[in-house]
């Protein structure tokens, strides 16, 4: 192996190990690793910039701006309260309703944003019902990761895959992933009721007080809400049509974001850019350059050769290996660097004779996104919810979450394995 | 202990302890400006970093149910005073 390839592997592994140790922030590490790759000449600056996927970044920034402004309107509180009233104030029904709202919202919005919007409403409703919020929070964590898997824009791994593989359009993600996500959600509902139903009993008078609330009072700015709904609707239509319109998904998201800023005017500009998680954006930039080092020095090609040797190029074995490896890895590690490494590896498999890559891409998407449900550290949304719950006096420990999360994650991967086999490999 | 008085012609306040919380039933009898003041207080508590300090539940006809965590009781009373929904606040 070439001298530079060994350096690239060394830098990548050290950065990866430090990210896992969580001693230093992952963004600082990824950016430092990327800078070292350039300074040592493993990739030059021009090549490094070519490897930064601006479609992924543009899509993330655009959606963060749209959601950041929409959150100001009280829309999510309105929807949650409306759902709670439709559920007649019954705790189990409300839990399932909020879980479904989280799943649907996560399919179109960032998971962390979705749970940040749902958690305060959940605390408000459960406090009024005088019940434990933890079952609600756990079901919402799981719903955010499952729902996020359904579309191209729902979860960063999907954004990265969709951006890297041009044939995998917004509609392709919906056609291929949404059916299995609906199956998983339907499988989870009775299990959630069985597991948590008895823990969330409430008195009829508390349920009645939910029914009497005025949900319209939740909307804080009707004019702004109208503008947000118009732009959000237009953006989602844009995602559905992006292939027909010959537009990248980032162009659609950024068009929506800046149209909304045009409609809301300058006062919203500062706030909108504050809602962009620049730390996450720079984490992606660092990772793209780190992986560029592995790609440019031929390490990824070698790994792909080894993977094909191991599986004999058999599509079923390779798909199952990718699905389960992604799921188990994502349950314990950040799925973004894992997917960033796997994308060029699968692309290389294509050039080595694996003719049908489609099941491999869907296996990667399902494994990486659903795996996040396995443990409390599996996804950012999990940690955010646990952090907020702990601060409010409702700790969700690693073990407490593992008890529910890991078996339910395994169930989702078993269902995904059957789906992949029946739909693509039989 | 913090005690308070208010103008009974424009506002009605009832409070009772419930587990670790104090629950308020507030009815605003004056004009919509009072609702705006209470909304401002709601906004202040929703914007801070604590999610369960003071929870507001809005009902029709200017009625509000507010659940206040005991450790935020003083903050809530002082917020009512700051927005002139109370006439007097004093330590007893």
Automatic annotation (TrEMBL), chain A:
Per the record's keyword annotation, is Transport included, yes or no?
A: yes
What keywords is this UniProt entry annotated with?
Answer: Cell membrane, Membrane, Transmembrane, Transmembrane helix, Transport
What does the record give under GO molecular function? arsenite transmembrane transporter activity
Bilayer-crossing regions:
6-21, 28-45, 57-80, 92-109, 177-197, 224-241, 276-295, 315-339, 360-384, 404-422
Any one cellular-component term (Gene Ontology): plasma membrane
> Is Cell membrane one of the keywords UniProt gives this record?
yes
CDD domains for the chain:
P_permease
> Which parts of the sequence belong to the Citrate transporter-like domain?
16-367
Localisation per UniProt entry: Cell membrane
Q: Which InterPro entries match?
A: Arsenical_pump_ArsB, Cit_transptr-like_dom, Diverse_Ion_Transporter
Lipid bilayer topology: Multi-pass membrane protein
Under the heading Pfam families, the entry gives:
CitMHS
What family is this?
Belongs to the CitM (TC 2.A.11) transporter family.
Q: What is this protein called?
A: Citrate transporter-like domain-containing protein
Species of the source: Paenibacillus rhizophilus
TrEMBL record, chain B:
Write the protein's name.
Answer: Uncharacterized protein
Species source reads: Paenibacillus rhizophilus
């Amino acid at each position: 192996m070439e001298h530079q390839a060994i350096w690239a592997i060394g830098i990548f592994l050290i950065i990866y190990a430090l990210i896992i140790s969580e001693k230093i922030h992952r963004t600082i590490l990824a950016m430092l690793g990327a800078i070292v790759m350039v300074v040592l000449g493993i990739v030059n600056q021009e090549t490094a910039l070519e490897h930064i996927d601006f479609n992924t970044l543009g899509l993330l920034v655009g959606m963060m701006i749209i959601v950041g402004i929409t959150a100001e309107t009280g829309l999510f509180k309105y929807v949650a309260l409306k759902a709670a009233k439709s559920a007649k104030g019954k705790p189990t029904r409300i839990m399932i309703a909020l879980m479904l709202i989280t799943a649907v919202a996560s399919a179109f919005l960032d998971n962390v944003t979705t749970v940040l919007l749902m958690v305060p409403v959940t605390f408000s409703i459960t406090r009024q019902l005088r019940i434990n919020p933890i079952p609600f929070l756990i079901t919402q964590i799981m719903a955010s990761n499952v729902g996020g898997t359904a579309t191209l824009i729902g979860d960063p791994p999907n954004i990265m895959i969709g951006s890297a593989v041009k044939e995998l359009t917004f509609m392709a993600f919906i056609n291929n992933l949404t059916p299995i996500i609906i199956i998983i959600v339907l499988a989870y509902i009775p299990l959630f009721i069985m597991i948590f139903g008895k823990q969330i009993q409430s008195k009829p008078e508390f349920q009645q007080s939910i029914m009497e609330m005025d949900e319209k009072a939740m909307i804080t700015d009707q004019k702004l809400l109208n503008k947000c709904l118009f732009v959000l609707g237009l953006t989602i239509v844009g995602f559905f049509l992006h292939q027909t319109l010959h537009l990248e998904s980032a162009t659609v998201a950024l068009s929506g974001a800046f149209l909304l800023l045009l409609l809301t005017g300058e006062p919203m500009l500062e706030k909108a850019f504050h809602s962009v998680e620049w730390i996450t954006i720079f984490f992606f930039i660092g990772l793209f350059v780190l992986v560029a080092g592995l790609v440019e020095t031929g390490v990824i090609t070698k790994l792909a050769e080894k993977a094909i040797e191991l599986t004999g190029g058999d599509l079923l074995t390779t798909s199952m290996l990718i699905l389960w490896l992604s799921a188990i890895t994502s349950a314990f590690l950040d799925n973004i660097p894992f997917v960033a490494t796997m994308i060029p590896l699968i692309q290389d498999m294509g050039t080595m004779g694996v003719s049908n890559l489609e099941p491999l891409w869907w296996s990667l998407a399902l494994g990486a996104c659903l795996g996040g449900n396995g443990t409390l550290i599996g996804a950012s949304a999990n940690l955010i919810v646990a952090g907020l719950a702990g601060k409010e006096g409702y700790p969700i420990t690693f073990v407490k979450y593992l008890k529910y999360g890991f078996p339910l994650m395994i169930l989702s991967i078993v269902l995904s394995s059957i789906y992949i086999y029946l739909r693509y490999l039989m | 202990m913090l005690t308070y008085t208010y103008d009974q012609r424009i506002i009605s306040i009832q409070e009772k302890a419930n587990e670790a919380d104090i629950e308020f039933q507030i009815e605003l009898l004056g004009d919509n400006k009072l609702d705006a003041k209470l909304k401002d207080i709601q906004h202040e508590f929703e914007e801070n970093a604590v999610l369960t300090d003071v929870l507001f539940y809005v009902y029709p006809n200017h009625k509000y149910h507010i659940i206040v965590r005991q450790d935020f009781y003083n903050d809530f009373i002082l917020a009512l005073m700051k927005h002139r929904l109370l006439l007097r606040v004093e330590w007893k």
